[in-house]
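Final report, Chapter 2: Outcomes

The project's central promise was a pipeline that accepts a single protein chain and returns its three-dimensional structure in a standardized token representation, suitable for archiving and comparison. That pipeline is now operational. To close this chapter, we reproduce one record exactly as it appears in the project archive, with the input sequence first and the structure output second.
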Amino acid sequence: MPYSLSDLNQMEQSAFTIALGEIFEQTPAIASQTWEQRPFTNVDDLHQKMLMVVNSMSNEQQLALICAHPDLGSKAKMANASVQEQAGVGLDRLTPEEYDRFHRLNEQYKSQFGFPFIIAVKNHTKDSILEAFETRLRHSQPDEMRQAIAEISQIAYFRLLQQVTS
């Protein structure tokens, strides 16, 4: 259910956290801490203030945020938003061969970097996601951690656009 910016600005912290707690996958503390920075002038302002919370997190907290995300193309339990986002590019309808390739790349990526591959799927197709996997496997761990946070920020923005009206 979309919320108006006016309603969000007037909510108690607990209601605000419930309303926006899944903007960042399984990390409602970001919404809870962002509440303290009200009022929000628009969705972009709200997003930037949420990113300030993310950027103030320790490396361990950011790693936990990254690890809260599901593998792409996985059949694992995930947040409804993730289910919808992955279905939007057909990752819920992979052929057995595609599923095996995604699974292999996910495992290789996690083994190499210590966290799941994150990408804002709304910006991509199945093929461009697979290309990104191949390219990003050549990056360093610190570069990939920064890239994962950047992708999570984009995912959060898309989710806010669906959840918040001006």
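Archive annotation: The mean pLDDT is 92.
This record, like all others produced under the grant, will remain available to the consortium after the project formally closes.
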